[in-house]
Design goal:
Layout lengths: L2 E5 L6 E6 L6 H5 L7 E7 H16 L4 E7 L8 H13 L7 E6 L1 H13 L5 E6 L2 H7 L4 E6 L2 E8 L4 E5 L8 H18 L1 H16 L2 H21 L14 H10 L8 H18 L6 H12 L16 H8 L12 E4 L5 E4 L4 H16 L1
Helix pairs in contact: 3-4, 5-6, 5-8, 6-7, 6-8, 6-10, 7-8, 9-10, 9-12, 10-11, 10-13, 12-13
The structure holds the ligand O=C(O)C(=O)C[C@@H](O)[C@H](O)[C@H](O)COP(=O)(O)O.
Ligand LNCXM5UN binds next to helix 5.
Length: about 375
């Protein structure tokens, strides 16, 4: 029942293995990468309590010793302070250039540990063992690593590809429903950006997938990773096409900064809301019929997901302030915002031809609904 997606980057090719039981069999997959039989694992306290013993047993079965560091869970861990802590600990463990660091956790741990590996001794290999749906379908693949800065999300980082990704779908059942659905926001993104048939499949199979249908989960993770791998192989460092993977993220990152990277809004929830706003903006600009954003929203609602700004509790800044936060987006060129818009479901494209006033109108209307 194991699926494999190969990310074929010259000199940095790697496999993404997808299926149940991969943590318990991790040793067999990691062993070929090792020059000595030990690894340094970094995780968070929640994931560590659930999966560290299984990983230790899985490595031990292949004679691999492990040392582990557990960090606090949550987006606030993607910080300078925790980066320093990781690097300091890895140096204390005398991790050498030919060793392998393992990131066991969700997107926060994968991004942070990947960045620590990228700068440790100018680059050490790392293995991603993503434990959230979001990390399995998105952040563990493609080599974007980094931390957040006071000025915005993911503003400090490096491209550093993993040497292997083990996406153990058997453990997705340990996720809180809220975290599972947040990850599903990224799954929907793939259908919206480039595969209308996949989006239609999600409309039909999303509810079963959320309830725990293992076959549907594997199929969704596989298709998402396949789409991500295709785009990353075309454009590893986001000079062009890779920006498509940022659908919904310009809005999302501004909202995450506005809500202080807190529990008020999980990253995947922001992506879902951001995708709905990107489709709304596309319809306002006459790029697609109004039925398209309505269909996007209908699916997110049917899945019980956050869909609109009115689903975010507490205060939000005004439209102008949100637009200012978007100005920190990494896609900005010569001070001009670039958006991922769509001519329809599955037909996204990158453009900087977006009038500021139309974006403000969309934001103002979305904010007005919160009062309504
Ligand atoms: O891998 C990519 O490329 C993506 O844009 C995937 C995003 O879903 C992901 O959240 C990424 O970390 C955001 O990248 P950023 O460059 O906008 O920080």
């Amino acid at each position: 029942m194991l699926e494999k997606v190969h990310v074929d980057l010259p000199g940095r090719a790697y496999d993404v293995l997808i299926g149940p039981g991969l943590i318990r069999s991790a040793g067999a997959h990691v062993a070929p990468l090792l020059s000595r039989k030990r690894v340094a694992v970094i995780t968070d306290e929640t994931v560590g309590a659930l999966h560290l013993d299984a990983l230790r047993a899985g490595l031990d079965a292949s004679g691999i010793a492990m040392e582990a560091l557990s960090l606090p869970p949550g987006e606030a861990t993607k910080s300078w302070a925790q980066l320093e802590r990781c690097v300091d600990w890895l140096l204390d463990q005398q991790v050498e250039r030919r060793d392998v660091v393992v990131a066991l956790g969700g997107g926060v741990i994968g991004d942070l540990v990947g960045f620590a590996a990228a700068i440790l001794r100018r680059g050490v290999r790392f293995v991603q063992i993503p434990t959230s749906l979001l990390a399995q379908v998105d952040s563990s693949v493609g080599g974007k690593t980094g931390i957040n800065a006071r000025q915005g999300k993911n503003l400090v980082g490096a491209f550093h590809q993993p040497a292997l990704v083990l996406a153990d779908t058997g453990i997705l059942g340990t996720l809180r429903p809220r975290d599972f659905l947040a990850g599903y926001g990224e799954v929907v993104k793939y259908g919206l950006l480039g595969d209308a048939a996949f989006f239609a499949w999600l409309e039909e199979n999303g509810p079963a997938l959320a309830k725990g249908d293992e076959k549907a989960r594997i199929a969704a993770v596989r298709r998402s990773v396949e789409m991500k791998a295709e785009i990353v192989m075309r454009d590893e460092t986001e000079q062009g096409d890779r920006a498509l993977l940022n659908l919904g993220h310009t809005f999302c990152h501004a909202l995450e900064t506005a809500t202080g990277y807190s529990d008020r809004l999980l990253h995947g929830e922001g992506v879902a809301i951001g995708c709905a706003l990107a489709f709304e903006l596309s319809a306002r600009l006459g790029l697609c019929p109004q039925e398209e954003p309505s269909r996007v929203r209908a699916h997110l609602r049917a899945m019980g997901m956050k869909t609109d700004l009115s689903d975010i509790e507490g205060d939000l800044p005004g439209a102008e302030a949100l637009l200012d936060l978007m100005g920190q987006d990494k896609k900005v060129v010569d001070g001009r915002l670039r958006f991922i818009l769509a001519r329809g479901i599955g037909e996204a494209f990158v453009t900087s031809e977006v009038p500021r006033d139309t974006v403000l109108d969309v934001l103002r209307d979305a904010l007005a609904q919160r009062q309504g």
